[in-house]
Amino acid sequence: MRLSLNRDSRTPLFQQIAAHLRRGMRAGRLPPGTRLPPTRRLATELGVNRLTVANAYAELEAEGLIAGEMGNGTFVQGPINEAVAEVESITSLPDRRKGEQRWPRWQRQLTHTEQRPVFVPNPPKQRRGMIDLASGFGDSRTFPVDEFRKTLQMVMRRDGIDSVAYGDHDGYPPLRERISHVLASQGLTVSAENVLITTGSQQSMALVAQLLLRPGDSVLVENPTYAIAIDLFRSLQLKVIGMPTDSGGIQTELLAPLLEKHRPKLIYTIPNFQNPTGSCLDSRRRRELIALVTRYNIPLLEDDFVGDLRYDGRAQPALKSLDPGGQVIYISSFSKMLMPGLRVGLLAAEGPVYQRLVEIKRVNDLVTSNLMQRAVEAFVTVGRYDSHLRRTRRLYRRRRDAMAEAIERYLPSDVSYDLPAGGLFFWLRVPGKRKTATLAAKSIEAGVGVAAGRDFFIEGSDGDRYLRLNFACSTPQEILRSVKRLGNLIR
Ligand SMILES: Cc1ncc(COP(=O)(O)O)c(C=O)c1O
Q1: How far is Cα 155 from Cα 374, in angstroms, rounded to an integer?
Q2: Residue 270 in contact with ligand 1 by CB distance below 6 A
Q3: Of 197, 247, 366, 460, which is most buried, counting CB atoms within 10 Å of its CB?
């Protein structure tokens, strides 16, 4: 490096070296990315002490002009003038930058990525007098809030500081034990050691996806399916492939060619009272599905979000209960059967995948709220849960029947549906020219929230003929009134 030092000057040598390098950067002689000579070599070249050069570098580093990379050397950073100018303009003229320009470049890039998920918009805010048939959960007016409050207080009194400690990563042991008993009473044998407590089914899905899937992998889902599952998989840059379905769930007889073609790394299914169609996978297809995933070596994620809310007919075996061993990951939660804000869910799996999921859970959020887990365990133990479930089933069955009656009475006869045997939803096929998204928007204006079919399809436009109505959230009177209004709009 050609650099003449004035040893008689009152400016210290390290500052002269720093000033020379600074000038070189500004003039473009030392562009960003240039590797500066090692301190020992430059010191020898200039005939100065090594410490002098080290001090010059330290000064430039403090100014952000150069940066050392461990074991690699010291590099010019840049582009300095633009960066300084940008920072100055942001700090001196904050209100001149409007809209997207307010944000640093790395943030602006986030809004322009090609593979961005098409997130389903938040449901419209509840207006006064609005009847909400669009929601995805039960009636919050019937949540056992007082009983749960008492349980929570009892748990804090009983467990003191233990109730607010972190707790075990895989969950509160008595709750895991309790869940294993509840599942056994439903014909599903899972040992407590294979139960992982999660912060809801949404987290369970995310953990499974994080462990098993990489960008570009294919995942098979019912088409239509739970909208936020599609969002989740898209956000991970997966190829989301739809499986054909009918009123008996996935058409397993058509599945083998899809498996051959896409070689999916996961199948996600909601076999009971599916969201949004309300359909139930029939028992022959359950067995066929298990045979297929075993033959093709594909993990099966079974989302049993409302399995306990059956109003007629015999319960079907959980896919997990047909599992020959380690093929099915079962997820469920207390969101629909109890209250969604508890954020307590469960995942059951066997084999190495279980331990790996525990590790992934730990790096995501350490643990699910210990206090909530203890309260849920206490609530479920004392039998209140069973009576709450029985009450809820009776209530929702009446509401389902009220909605079926209202549809028959007020909707045009060419609107078709299957009576759901459980769960929360009617899935209507609405013929005619008008798209259901437009109808849903008009319906909201008329004070009735309904969910447009397009939110649940991989290709949104496939949903233009469908509407999803929640029957669990409204009283029979509200259901009659709202379906009547909807009928007028459709006509
Ligand atoms: C099918 C399905 N799975 C999972 C979830 C997520 O539920 P959780 O509250 O347990 O995270 C929902 C929520 O609506 C759902 O409809």
Answers
A1: 7
A2: yes
A3: 197
Atom of ligand 1 nearest to the CA of 345: 10
DSSP 280-340: ---HHHHHHHHHHHHHHT--EEEE-SSTT-B-SSPPPPPGGGG-SSS-EEEEEESTTTT-G
**pLDDT tens digits, one per residue of 369-399:** 999 999 999 999 877 888 889 999 999 999 9
Helix (H) or strand (E) holding 222: strand 218-222
Beta bridge partners of 76: 66
Q: CA 375, CA 158: separation in Å to the nearest integer?
A: 11
Residue 227 Cα to ligand 1 midpoint, Å, equals 10
Which tokens is 479 given?
A: 């259901």
- What pTM was computed for the model? 0.80
Helix (H) or strand (E) segment spanning residue 426: strand 425-429
Alpha helix segments (H runs only) across 126-254: 145-159, 173-185, 201-212, 227-235
Q: Which stretch of DSSP H or E encloses residue 380?
A: helix 370-381
Please give the full DSSP string across 65-81, using - where no structure is assigned: SEEEETTTEEEE---HH
275 CA → ligand 1 middle, Å: 9
Place of tokens 């992934």: 360
pLDDT, tens digit (0-9, with 9 covering 90-100), for 170-229: 999 999 999 999 999 888 999 999 999 999 999 999 999 999 999 999 999 999 999 999
Ligand 1 closest atom vs CA 303: 3
| Separation of CA 488 and ligand 1 centre (Å) | 32
Two tokens, residue 148? 């749960």
What is the Cα–Cα distance from 130 to 125, expressed in whole angstroms? 10
Please report, for the chain, how many H helices and E strands are present, in that order: 16, 17
Distance, CA of 220 to CA of 223 (rounded, Å):
9
Q: Is 490 left (phi over 0), alpha (psi -120 to 50) or beta?
A: alpha
Q: CA 57 to CA 307: how far, in whole Å?
A: 66
Distance (Å, rounded) from C-alpha 334 to C-alpha 201? Answer: 9
Which helix (H) or strand (E) segment holds residue 266: the answer is strand 266-269
> H/E/C letters for each residue in 451-484?
EEHHHHCCCHHHHCCEEEEECCCCCHHHHHHHHH
- Identify the residue whose C-alpha is closest to ligand 1 atom 3: 305
Ligand 1 atom having least distance to the Cα of 332: 10
Tell me if 202 CB under 6 Å of ligand 1.
yes
